[in-house]
Write the structure tokens for this entry.
Amino acid sequence: MTTLKRVDVHVEGIVQGVGFRPFVYCLANRLGLAGRVHNDVNGVHIEVEGALAGVEEFLTALERDAPALSEIERVTVVSGEPAGHSGFTIAASDPAGPGRALVSADTATCDGCLRELADPGDRRHRYPFVNCTDCGPRFTIVRGVPYDRPLTTMAGFGMCEDCAREYHDPADRRFHAQPTCCPACGPRLRLRDARGTELCGDPVACAATLLRAGRVVAVKGLGGYHLAVTASDERAVAALRGRKHREEKPFAVMVADLRQARRLCEIDDSAAALLTGRARPVVLLPRRSGAAVAPSVAPGNRSLGIMLPYTALHHLLLAELAEPMVLTSGNVSDEPIAYEDADALTRLGGIADAFLTHDRPIHTRADDSVVRPLAGGVTVLRRARGYAPEPLALRRTVRRPVLACGAELKSTFCLALGRRAFVSQHLGDLENHDTLRAFTDGIEHFCGLFGIRPEVVAYDPHPDYLSTRHALEIAGVDHVAVQHHHAHIASCLADNGDRGPVIGVAFDGLGHGPDGTLWGGEFLRADLTGYERLGHLAQVPMPGGVAAIRQPWRMAAAYLRDEHPGLAVAERNADHWADVLRLAAGGLNSPLTSSAGRLFDAVSALLGIRDRISYEGQAAIELEQRADPAETGVYPAEVTGAGPLVVQSGDLVRAAAADLAAGVDSGVIAGRFHNGLAAVVTRACAAIRQSTGLTAVALSGGVFQNALLLERTAERLRAAGFRVLTHVRVPPNDGGLSLGQAAVAAAQDGA
Amino acid sequence: LAHGSGGKATQTLVEAVFLEAFRNPLLAPLEDGAILPFDGPLGTGRLAFTTDSYVVSPLFFPGGDIGDLAVNGTVNDLAMCGARPRYLSAGFILEEGFPVEDLRRVVASMAQAAAAAKVEIVTGDTKVVQRGRADGCYITTTGVGLVERPVTLSAGAARPGDAVLVSGPIGAHGAAIMLARGDFEIEAPIASDTAPLHEIVAGLLDAVPGQVRTLRDATRGGLATVLNEVAAASGVAVVLEEAAVPVRPEVTGVCELLGLDPLYVACEGRFVAVVDGGHAERALDALRAHPLGAEAAIVGTVAAEPAALVLLRTGVGGTRVVDVLVGDPLPRIC
Ligand SMILES: [Fe+3]
Ligand SMILES: [Mg+2]
Ligand SMILES: [Zn+2]
Ligand SMILES: [Zn+2]
């Protein structure tokens, strides 16, 4: 007689809506075990019994062979007496109690579904909404928990008999796939003109014809509407720019497959993995010379943002078009992306010539994510579709639930409970009223989805952030102000599961400093509970405040004053150069800043790259793009003072001005500037190591989106014996700030 | 204490310190002035009563000086209560060493402004403080006026469907002051807009009797701050059309140089009227009939949602939140 064993297994993590129960069912059957499995609010609960060896194999395979989309966070096993189950069953969900089961991110169409899409014999042949438990919409269609069809935007589509059979068959790939559907019962694709009138013919084929004719087509995706034009058609791309009021910010390009991608960009193995992964972000990659892409797609950039199709509709459209297409967010200027059908028709009616749309509502807006591969890693520049709302694991348990309200631009919020941090998708600039509403509604939605009621609310002390205003309006909670650059470093610590203390190098545009000046080039001694400012870039005035951000030439003036007569930048801006110097000298609306971003602005304008910008960070981005990566020269810069250290960043600007006057090529100057900044950061860190004994450096802040600066700085720091932390899962820019705020608030709350 | 630019910091200070200590029903609405009903042997009626202190640097600027500013400012606060201004007091705090010629100049322009506004300065006070304890000359004026029409005006009276009007191009006063502070090369013929507003207000009140809900002069903090006060006090949204807000090109130019948003720049002779939506055109005609209102405009509407917010619809179709600034404008871009 074999020994019988019975265990109760509780699995937590992303285990709902990912085919976990059918996987358990099949596994138990294969091993000849009896029992049952069901979803509860905290995950999946399994009772299983049978031969000891079988149960043991079951527990091993449970984690080893778990479905691709699942992410197991914790497995709890309790032994018990066999109950005499006969056979293995899947029981109904148990919706009681607080909903803490995890909603997964939207996922690119899987290979199984792609095969059906291409198979003329399959009933979903060429059906744009094919999906299964391994793929398809999730976060963007969920209205509430538990994650079941009635609480998604698929609720309005009654399943046909065939779909229902698959849905209820534990052995089927579509068992409990909430958004499952087919041409007989599911959403329908339509092509409409700009007035909303339906156009006849095959919508995909007609849309492709319009694109080939140079027209702009709005395409309803997972998280909102996109605007598409043929990527090689300069006239079409330029027309799209004009209508969107987007002057120069690069457009993303969607390609059919890796083969097409390789014709446009240099793609190594890590880039290929990012492109073909289930999140399908836009990947910034070095552009090949002669790539067949219109100049207006990414002016001033050597790289190109590429993504692969992530819905069946994209696959069908690209197959029909047979060449890459620009696929950019469906909005005007900096507005949030349109996602509701009526609103899209109103807002995009003046831009798009036609709408490729359908009747499955989008509940939550989500932009495309943007990443950039890095030597030995990746920088996430925008974390949205495909990543959010999956939780980030925290090193320590959060005592009381925390809401962190983030910054102002590139807004995200973060909810933290237990050992999980839920960072929202990228929302955008809160000054925009639609975005502000997405922010406040999104906080409520997340609180409901994850069963979190915040007791601690963290915010940025900048008095004019709308996120700060919202945070302070929440009553009955403890408020925690987290200094902007401390939050950046804490974000990097939380991102790496490190507790610090570290030397935090926080380089960004700017943030509110407790001394009333604007910080942005900071060397902090920081852990999660606190920080001390041990150094910073030399302060310069920002002549005219925000005007100095919009017009980088003003920063060149602030740095160089009258010391370099005959500079081209002064000549180009002769009309106002003297007045701007007076502004700076008189202090009238010219706040002092130690910002590294403004330092890049000054050099970019000095080199004639950008006097005025049309999107945030443009001058610095184009300076990086201009830099010659082969250049090894290094501009010198002094580090003075002791408490705190002051990095004489003006030395770098003056060295660049001298080289420019001597006729040195701007790419070489830009290279020497990057190297010089990396070198002086390393020296400042070495000086801080001497006084503090700290040997780890965390690099954070929007300036470290600059791959050249990040790589050069990290190399030098490592060569000097430092351990270097960089971002992994959240952006170094303000999109990652909410995670840092949450980590600090939780640490201060005492774990 | 933070420097008072008329923003949220000042508002918070006023609410936390003064309102708390002096609490009474006349002060509580924090309007431009208080309305005092009287009922005595000589008759019944309503007095408007207000006070304001003037600290401006420089004291003399294109289009005016601290003297006419002190008269017009208080006259206008009375006008915003719907009153006819009658009597003013004037209190001076002078720094030791302040030139007598300058004082004469200031006083002369006060006399001139008072005559133009048909008010009399009937009482006053002067103190001289040690050098360095004040910046030249500060003036406090208090004013009394008569409310002769059956109006009840309040920042809390705006309702959805109302129209929002401004009496003329905004930002000239603040831009003139800023230019006078620096020694700039930019050539901009900008003079302060300081002017008494009670006559144009009387014309408006008579043209659309009972239809004016709110009057506010857009002084410190500019149009944006005043509209935020209205939105908060009335629990409504104010939706501005960017293209409809009148700003002179030379003011726009100076604001661009200085990095200021004209919506937040002070005026001293412009006001906001919230008027019943059905009477907006008539109200506009009444404003334009007065020389000070030749460039008046309907700039927006009042909506129910989102409560307590001011929104600006921009040229490209976006909607921007126009928040109250806490202190001096600080860049928010990271
Ligand atoms: Fe930042
Ligand atoms: Mg006043
Ligand atoms: Zn699939
Ligand atoms: Zn079906």
Q: What stands out?
A: The domain at 155-321 of chain B is CATH 3.90.650.10 (Phosphoribosyl-aminoimidazole Synthetase; Chain A, domain 2). Chain B touches chain A through 34 residues (CB under 8 Å). The pocket of fe (iii) ion (ligand 1) is lined by residues A 484, 488, 508, 511, 701-702, 734; B 334 (CB under 6 Å). Chain B has a mean pLDDT of 92.
